[in-house]
Amino acid sequence: MTRLATEVVQSSQQPRGPRRVAWARSPQALIMYGYVLLAFYVTIQLWVDPASRAQNGDVSDVDQANWFMRYTATAIEHFRLPALITTAMNAPHGVNLMWNTSLLLPGIILAPVTLLAGTQVALTVLLVISFAGSAAAMFYVLRRWQASILAAALGGFLYGFSPALINTGVGHYSLVVAILPPLMIDRLLRMVTGRGSPVRNGLWLGLMAAAQFFISEELLVDAAIAAVILLIALGLSRPREVLARLRPLLIGLGTGVVIALVLCARGLWVQFHGVAPKTAAATVTILYNGRLTNLGTWPYAFITPSDTVLLHSSGTAWSAAHYPQPTPEYLAYLGIFLIVVLLAAIIYYWRNLYIRVAGITCIVLEWFGLGAKPMVPGSHTLPSFLLPWQFVQHLPVVSGMVPDRLCILADAGAAAVLAFALDLSRREGSWFAKNFKNGARVATGVAIVALLPVFPAPYGVGSTIPQPAGWDSTFQSLHVTATDRVLLAPYPWGGEAQVMRWQADNNNPRTMIGGMFIAPGVAGRDGRAGRATYTDNPLALYINALYAGQYKTTLVPTQAQVRASLAAMKPNDVVAVTSLSTPLGQYLELLFGPPTVHHASVLGWKLKPGQVIG
Predict the structure, then answer these.
(1) Rg (CA), the chain
(2) N or C end of the chain: which has fewer CB within 10 A?
(3) Total tally of structural domains belonging to the chain
């Protein structure tokens, strides 16, 4: 004991510089470097031209994320926090950002990148941070629970670069920032197992929950669901021990809840004041490839790779491409070999508490991820009695969640099973040691081979739709102020989300009519993608039909409908990406008279108060 104490004192007296250099060369540091390099590898094609390249697969959500990043950066640029309700979009009615994937905390942190290099660069930086950071967080948690460096490294890879997270990164930026959920569950486990002060653990849990609240509320709820499943599995496995730790657990949870509520009070008030939680969230039924579908996992997604993993064939790529949901919802893939390895590990090492609890959590989350009985007939492939999500889908707040995204947390459970099972398999006396000469190496080889099918491929990318020539100069010539409400053509919504990217490039216009957003309290699918202010607007519908050349199949709005639409929107200016020789330009000239300005491919009108519409 004396010798150990002496070594500790001597170590603590060493200069910080040499200790930092030693850590920078340690295996742990090399693993972190590897995660960062792998994150750059996944996004390598974006970095060829980071300002104008985006991932293929979910263009509208990427365009929307650009707008949110610009909105937050603009607030930081003016030395204030972003408002939680804004009329910068959907003027004059406004948007409640707490019901949207508004990236508030990531947008604040990356505001310097946004202001210096642009929104698309900031989003690509966010992808790198998210993949490497999520893997590093899982590595840290596994090491805290005594996993070896090798096992923790592989577990971190499986979580941080899982197909669930890689496919989520195609457009769902708020969900891909999955760094905090493993750390929150780690703090919860420390409370229930008596590791550390319950108050301190609760403090950290509350701080991280509050941070996650302003990153993605959905992922926070997913983490809470995973934690409940984990605690139930742990309680059933060790009922006496858990009951003995109940008081410290409640103290820690109480501390965490108080801290989180204090930090999130303003956001919660803005989100729920005057809005019924049960009806506020947008429905999870979407129209994809001309077909209404639920957002739940179809079973073949577990074993059929998409083109976002390196090892796939033209046949499997075709199957994934014809999945009835977009790429960011293709989240369940693990591959046959890895699934077999995980199930074998859970069964063989069932007596190991870590593997049993993590395995149960993983399986139940994947089961929930299958979704609920169909709101739309034929939108799933399993009988409704095999889909337990149906029993919770109508709960307040949960009703707006997408169940297949539970696969992200399920992969955290899979990572824990793989890591702890690998360590057990490498020990002397294990099944591998008894049956193979180099049992530890064989076990490691099996784990690595099982992970090969989920090794990611670099993102496929495409060029973004550039801002039209004359866009910024038109706003300057019209002398558009920050409070001027601008009617844009094309009219921005989910189907014309590129307008939001054009706005995000140089923050023009500052106040936009329409947009792509979630509207609380609007029934059905109209609550999504700005449909609530688009489909009930005959003028907006006709403007976009003219822009897309589909006006022959769209009813021309009556003068009364035009006046009603303009009365609801109250525009001060009109800016259109068109020319006077097009049907759109001619129609707008008929309504508003000759354009006030004309720059390149953009026309602009400054409307006078009380101007009579032609």
Answers:
(1) 27
(2) N
(3) 2
The number of beta carbons lying within 10 Å of the beta carbon of residue 390 is 15
In the Cβ-directed half-sphere of 49, how many Cα atoms lie within 13 Å?
8
Phi, psi of 576, deg, nearest 5: -130, 135
Give the pLDDT confidence score for residue 13 in this predicted structure. Answer: 57
Helices and strands (H, E) in the chain, number of each type: 28, 10
Percent of the chain surpassing pLDDT 90: 75
Which of 464, 457, 509 has the alpha carbon at shortest distance from 123?
464
In a shared domain, residues 483 and 424: no
| Residue 198 and residue 170 share a domain | yes
Same domain, 356 and 411: yes
Q: Where are the alpha helices (DSSP H) in 336-438?
A: 336-348, 353-368, 407-426, 431-435
- Residue 334, Cα to own-chain centre: how many angstroms? 20
Q: Are residues 421 and 570 in the same domain?
A: no
pLDDT tens-place string over residues 160-196: 999 999 999 999 999 999 999 999 999 999 999 999 9
For 576-611, the pLDDT digits (tens) are 999 999 999 999 999 999 999 999 999 999 998 766
Which residues have CB under 8 Å from 38's CB, separation 6+?
Answer: 131, 132, 135, 157, 161, 456
Does residue 431 share a domain with residue 492? Answer: no
Q: How does pLDDT run across 546-580, given as a tens digit for each residue?
A: 999 988 888 899 999 999 999 999 999 999 999 99
Residue 316: its pLDDT value, please? Answer: 86
* pLDDT at position 2: 39
Q: What's the mean pLDDT when you consider all of the chain?
A: 91
Q: Is residue 482 part of a domain?
A: yes
Residue 80 in any domain: the answer is no
- 283 falls within a domain: yes
pLDDT at 488 over 60: yes
Task: Summarize the confidence of residues 235-254 as an average pLDDT.
Answer: 93
For the segment 117-131, the average pLDDT, to the nearest whole number, is 98
Range of the domain at 487: 471-606
Together in a domain, 376 and 337: yes
359, 234 contact by CB (below 8 A): no
- Name the residue among 40, 52, 123 with its Cα closest to residue 462: 52
For residues 432 and 555, membership in a common domain is answered with no
Residue 482 sits in the same domain as residue 419: no
What does each C-alpha distance from 343 to 152, 262, 352, 486 come to in angstroms? 19, 42, 14, 57
At residue 486, φ and ψ (nearest 5 deg) are: -110, 125
For 576, the 3-state DSSP assignment is: strand
Give pLDDT tens digits for 187-204: 999 999 999 999 999 999
The token pair at 55 is: 């991932």
Last residue of a domain, one of 430, 457, 484: 457
| 86 domain-assigned | no
Q: In the Cβ-directed half-sphere of 400, how many Cα atoms lie within 13 Å?
A: 26
Question: Of the residues 457, 481, 499, which one is the last residue of a structural domain?
Answer: 457
Whether residue 368 contacts residue 198, with contact meaning beta carbons closer than 8 Å, is answered with no
